[in-house]
Amino acid sequence: MGQAVKRHAVSDLAATLRSGDWLTRERVRLWCAALLGVSGLALAVVAATSNGMTDYQGRPLATDFSCFWTAGRLVLDGHPAAAYDDAALAALQRATFGPQTPFYGWLYPPFFLLVAALLATLPYPLALSAWLATTIALYVLAIRTILQTAADPATPRERGGPDRLWLLVALAFPAVLVTVGHGQNGFLTAALFGGALAVLDRRPLLAGVLIGLLVYKPQFGLLIPLALLAGGRWRTIAAAAATVVVFAGVTLALLGPEPWRAFLAVSGAVRTEVLEQGVAGWHKLHGVFAWTRFWGGPVDLAYGLHAIVALATALAVVWAFRARVRPALRAALLLVGTLVVAPHSHDYDLMLLGPALAFLITDATRHGFGPWEKTLLAVVYAVPLFTRAVAEHLMIPLGTIVILALLITILWRCTNGGGLAAAPSDSVIAPLAKLPPRPN
């Protein structure tokens, strides 16, 4: 009798997870409000126990932002190439934040030195505040644009204005807390990439400019040219190329050639130390390469497995853009595929899952959810909060596993999702996409 009850309970649980009926609107509202409240409280505690420059542990506030600001100071002092000199950068960080400050290296191409220099014109706390406020606003704008673009024009505007649950869900996304804690550029990356894909069909030149500005994250640009070429997006390609050329020209004119020489000189060492040797910790990285090295696989095997998965993902993206699958699905596929193909990504780079989820939500709202999809989307939403701790303590690369599962789900929707039943009326996800269409 007891075994029968257990089997029945397991069967009921599986059925509930499969249908996603547990993911009600009210539960999402409460959980997201709790997430946002706890995140805000944690940040408030850190701010209250800091001295304005360092936290209670003596680390720079928003740790990684310290390398942005100090690299910018070197630019303003007339030594932009010194940002790639670990000794010089570390000395400035210790002089600024204290002699026990851990080293935060500068790994970006010279393009991003222009942004760093602009930030360094402000005192550190003010620069950090301005950086986070601006990039969070851009991220929110990109999510809203995605929802507006994919909204059904036949859906009447709800009385009292558009539903605001989307804003709570976007701000409570755990990757937001991770990115704020690091002071990183995840918001900017998500805004540029997600915004470009949102306007790709309507404003191809603007999409190209936004894509061109992503050049500061070269590891995330591997699939974009393939997708644009496969889709025949010639105006977007031209705009992106022109943006990169202009950006490079401005950087060269303002900073000279030395930063470029220094960047190229250290690139090989960065690949060896960060990617192959995992000096920062493989538990912090995502991707098949990091997974293989994390579990003790040799470098050659890691490259081989990564190449196989990357090639399969690239072929899928090319097919999706050539086949003209639904725009929201091909956008989500490119965003998630970028995380799969990138040689490495950190937990703050999981901000790319934000716009990917927004595209998937809008597609599923209009065309229906498949089995297990609501539950998977909930897991994807939550995973940035746990991925580093689970990898570090349990040796399970949770982030990589979930990203691969999401990629497979998107491919399934691309090939089999057209005949799905309409989403149930009590779906938590459906109201998120009911934003009014952009007025003409």
Automatic annotation (TrEMBL):
It is found in: Cell membrane. Pfam families: GT87 (PF09594). Keywords: Cell membrane, Membrane, Transferase, Transmembrane, Transmembrane helix. One of its GO terms (molecular function) is hexosyltransferase activity. InterPro entries: GT87. GO terms for cellular component: plasma membrane. It is a multi-pass membrane protein. The chain crosses the membrane at residues 28-49, 103-122, 167-193, 205-230, 237-256, 301-321, 328-345, 394-412. The keyword Transmembrane helix applies. Its main location: membrane. Belongs to the glycosyltransferase 87 family. This is DUF2029 domain-containing protein.
